C-alpha cells in the first residue's frame, strides 16, 4: 500500500485539528466555568437546563412583583396607622366635649381642633403612592377619590374594586383597599345603634342599646320607639305596637335589646334603634355631625338632651369605624406577612433550581483542569509526531 506525502499531511492536519479542538474546548470550559458551553456538548443536559432557567426567570419575575406589592401594602398600612390615630384622637375630643361643665365657647374650641382631624383624615383618604396613583380609589386611581364640596360634604368618586397583583404562581393578592371599604363600612357583628330624632322636643336621653338575648326572634331587625300621649301620660310604642307606660330611669327591653331612658320626653318624640350596618357608616358624615353638635349653642335642657343623644350615637359610630379601620389594617398586615412567607418558599425553590442547573451545566474544576492538561499533552504529542514524520525521508536509509 502506497502512502503518499499528501495523505500523510492530511492525516496529520486532521489529527492536529482534533487535538486543538479538544484542547480549546477544555480551555473554554475552564474560562466559562461551565461544562455545557454549547448544546452539542450535552444535548440532554442543555435541554433540561433551558427548562430550569425558564423556571428561575419566572421566580425572579414573581420576586419583583412581590417587591411592588410590598411597597403598595406598606404605604397603605402607614396611612391606616395615621387614620387609626386620628380616629382615636377624635374620640378623645368628643368625650371631652360631652363634659357638662364646658361652655359653648369651650365646645367650639374643641370643634376647631376636631376640624383639623377631619381635614387630616380627608388628606389621608386621598393619599397617593410614589407613582401618583391614589391608594383608595379602586380602579379610579388617577384622581382624588374623596371630594369636598366646600360645605363639609364628602363624596366618594372611586369604585369598589381592589387592585390585585400576582405574587406567586398560585396567588393573586389584593394590594390595595378601596375607600368605601376603609372609610364607609363597618365590620359584621357591629351590633346596634340608637339615634334620636333631630325634631325631639323633650329631654329624654338614652344609654345603649345593649344586647341581652341574641337568640330573640326579632333580634337583627330595626325598631322605632315612639313616645305617645295616652290619657295625659307618656307611653312608649315600639314599631307601632301597644303602648306601655314610660318610667324615667328604667330600661326597656325589646327584640333581645335593652335601652335605658332618662329625662322627660314629649309626645311625638322618637328614637330609632337599628343594626349598625343599616345606619350611617361613613366616617366623614360622623365627624360632620360631631362638628355640628359641638358648634351648636346649648340654650336649653332640650338642646342639652339632643346634644347628649347625638354624641352618644356619634361615639358608637366612631367605635365601629375605628374597629373597621383596624380590621382592614390587620388584613394589610396579614398580606405583608404572607409576602414574607412566600419569599421564604421562593428562596428555597430558587436555591433548588440553581442547584439543579449547576448540576446540569456547571464545571467540575478538578476534572476540567486534569482534562485540560491531558489535551495539552495530546496536542503537543501530535505536533511533535508531525514534525518527526515530516523530517523523515527514504534517502536517510540509502547508504
Automatic annotation (TrEMBL):
<feature type="domain" description="Flagellin N-terminal">
    <location>
        <begin position="3"/>
        <end position="139"/>
    </location>
</feature>
<comment type="similarity">
    <text>Belongs to the bacterial flagellin family.</text>
</comment>
<keyword id="KW-0969">Cilium</keyword>
<keyword id="KW-0975">Bacterial flagellum</keyword>
<dbReference type="GO" id="GO:0009424">
    <property type="term" value="C:bacterial-type flagellum hook"/>
</dbReference>
<dbReference type="InterPro" id="IPR001492">
    <property type="entry name" value="Flagellin"/>
</dbReference>
<dbReference type="GO" id="GO:0005198">
    <property type="term" value="F:structural molecule activity"/>
</dbReference>
<keyword id="KW-0966">Cell projection</keyword>
<dbReference type="GO" id="GO:0071973">
    <property type="term" value="P:bacterial-type flagellum-dependent cell motility"/>
</dbReference>
<keyword id="KW-0964">Secreted</keyword>
<protein>
    <submittedName>
        <fullName>Flagellar hook-associated protein 3</fullName>
    </submittedName>
</protein>
<dbReference type="Pfam" id="PF00669">
    <property type="entry name" value="Flagellin_N"/>
</dbReference>
<keyword id="KW-0282">Flagellum</keyword>
<dbReference type="InterPro" id="IPR013384">
    <property type="entry name" value="Flagell_FlgL"/>
</dbReference>
<dbReference type="InterPro" id="IPR001029">
    <property type="entry name" value="Flagellin_N"/>
</dbReference>
<dbReference type="GO" id="GO:0005576">
    <property type="term" value="C:extracellular region"/>
</dbReference>
Amino acid at each position: 500500500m502506497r502512502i503518499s506525502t499528501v495523505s500523510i499531511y492530511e492525516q496529520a492536519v486532521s489529527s492536529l485539528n482534533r487535538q486543538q479542538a479538544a484542547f480549546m474546548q477544555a480551555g473554554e470550559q475552564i474560562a466559562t466555568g461551565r461544562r455545557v458551553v454549547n448544546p452539542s456538548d450535552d444535548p440532554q443536559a442543555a435541554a433540561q437546563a433551558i427548562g430550569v432557567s425558564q423556571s428561575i426567570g419566572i421566580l425572579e419575575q414573581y420576586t419583583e412583583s412581590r417587591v411592588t406589592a410590598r411597597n403598595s401594602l406598606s404605604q397603605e398600612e402607614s396611612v391606616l396607622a395615621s387614620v387609626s390615630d386620628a380616629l382615636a384622637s377624635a374620640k378623645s375630643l368628643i368625650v371631652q366635649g360631652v363634659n357638662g361643665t364646658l361652655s359653648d365657647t369651650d365646645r367650639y374650641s374643641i370643634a376647631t381642633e376636631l376640624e383639623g382631624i377631619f381635614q387630616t383624615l380627608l388628606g389621608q383618604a386621598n393619599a397617593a403612592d410614589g407613582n401618583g396613583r391614589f391608594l383608595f380609589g379602586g380602579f379610579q386611581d388617577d384622581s382624588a377619590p374623596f371630594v369636598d364640596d366646600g360645605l363639609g360634604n364628602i363624596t366618594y368618586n372611586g369604585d369598589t374594586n381592589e387592585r390585585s397583583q400576582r405574587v406567586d404562581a398560585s396567588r393573586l393578592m389584593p394590594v390595595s383597599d378601596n375607600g368605601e371599604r376603609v372609610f364607609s363600612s363597618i365590620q359584621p357583628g357591629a351590633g346596634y345603634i340608637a339615634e334620636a330624632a333631630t325634631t325631639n322636643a323633650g329631654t329624654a336621653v338614652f344609654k345603649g342599646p345593649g344586647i341581652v338575648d341574641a337568640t330573640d326572634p326579632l333580634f337583627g331587625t330595626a325598631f322605632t320607639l315612639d313616645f305617645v300621649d295616652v290619657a295625659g301620660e307618656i307611653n312608649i310604642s315600639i314599631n307601632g305596637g301597644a303602648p306601655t307606660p314610660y318610667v324615667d330611669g328604667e330600661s326597656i327591653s325589646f327584640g333581645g335589646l335593652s335601652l335605658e331612658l332618662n329625662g322627660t320626653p314629649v309626645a311625638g318624640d322618637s328614637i330609632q334603634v337599628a343594626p349598625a350596618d343599616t345606619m350611617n357608616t361613613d366616617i366623614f358624615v360622623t365627624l360632620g355631625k360631631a362638628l355640628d353638635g359641638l358648634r351648636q349653642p346649648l340654650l336649653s335642657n332640650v338642646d342639652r338632651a339632643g346634644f347628649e343623644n347625638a354624641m352618644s350615637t356619634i361615639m358608637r359610630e366612631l367605635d365601629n369605624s375605628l374597629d373597621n379601620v383596624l380590621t382592614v389594617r390587620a388584613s394589610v398586615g396579614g398580606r405583608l406577612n404572607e409576602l414574607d412567607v412566600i419569599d421564604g418558599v421562593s428562596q428555597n425553590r430558587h436555591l433548588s433550581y440553581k442547584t439543579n442547573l449547576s448540576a446540569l451545566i456547571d464545571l467540575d474544576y478538578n476534572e476540567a483542569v486534569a482534562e485540560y492538561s491531558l489535551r495539552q499533552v495530546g496536542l503537543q504529542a501530535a505536533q511533535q509526531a508531525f514534525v518527526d514524520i515530516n523530517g523523515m525521508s527514504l534517502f536517510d536509509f540509502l547508504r
